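2024-03-11 09:14:02 DEBUG pipeline.ingest accepted 1 chain
2024-03-11 09:14:02 DEBUG pipeline.ingest length=292
2024-03-11 09:14:03 DEBUG pipeline.predict start
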Amino acid sequence: MSGALPQNRLSAATREPAWVRWLLISLALVFLSLFLFLPLVSVFFEAFKRGWDVYLAAVVEPDALSAIKLTLIAAAISVPLNLVFGVAAAWAIAKFDFRGKSVLLTLIDLPFSVSPVIAGLIYVLVFGLQGWFGAWLMEHDIKIIFAVPGIVLATIFITFPFVARELIPLMQAQGLEQEEAAVVLGASGWQTFWKVTLPNVKWALLYGVILCNARAMGEFGAVSVVSGHIRGMTNTMPLHIEILYNEYQFAAAFAVASLLASLALVTLVLKYIVERRVQQQLAQAKSAGATA
C-alpha cells in the first residue's frame, strides 16, 4: 500500500481539470489552423483559382519543367549518398567505441546549427571564381558554383544529418546482443550487417530517407546562394516560385508551389505511418534490452 501511494500522488499531479485540457487543445487547433491549414488551403485555392488550363500551363512551362527536373536530380543524387553516409555513421557510432566519436556526432549535427545561407557562402568561398580552388577549376573548365554540381553539394550538406539521426537512437537501444550472437555463430561483418543490423532498422531508415528527400526538394537558402538564379538552368522549384512571385505571376507561382505542398502532404502521411513503426520498433528494442 505504501508503494502505491506515491504512484497515486504522481498520477493525481499529472491530471488536469477538463476545462484546462480543452483550452489547451483549442489553442493548439487555433494555432494549427492559422499557421498550417489556412496557408495550405490558400496555396491550392490560388493555384486553381483561374482554372485548370492556367494551372497546367504554368506547370508544363519550359522553365517550370527545368526547375522540376533539377529538383528531382538534386534529390536523386543527394538522398542515396546521404543514405550510405547515414547508415555508415550510425553503425559506427552505435556499434563501436573509438576516439573522436563525440566529434563525429557534432559534425553530423552541424547543418542543424549553421544557417543554410552560410553553408552556401562557404561553397562559394571554396569553389567560386575567387575561392580557394576557383583558379584551378577555371583552368580545367570545371564549373561548380552557378551550376548543377554546386546545387547538389549544397543539398547534400543540408540533408546529411537526417538518416543518421534517425538510426543512431534505435541502434543504440537495440544494443549489441544480436550482432554478437551472429558473430559467435560464424557470420562475417557484412553478413551480420545485411542479415541482422539492417533488417532491425529498416523502418527508421525509411523514415530518415523520407525526411531527407522532403528537405532536399524544399531547400531554398543554400541552393539560392550557389545557384546564381539562372532561369531554366540552375533554378530549383523553390527558386522558380520566388522568381514567379516577384514578377507578379501569382497564378503560376502558386501552381508550382502546390506541387511542393502536395509533396509535403504525401511526406506527412508517410512520416506518420513510418513513425508509428519506428516507435514500435524502438519500444521493442528497449523492452528487449531491459529484459536482458
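2024-03-11 09:14:41 DEBUG pipeline.report The CA atoms of residues 69 and 133 lie 28 Å apart.
2024-03-11 09:14:41 DEBUG pipeline.predict end
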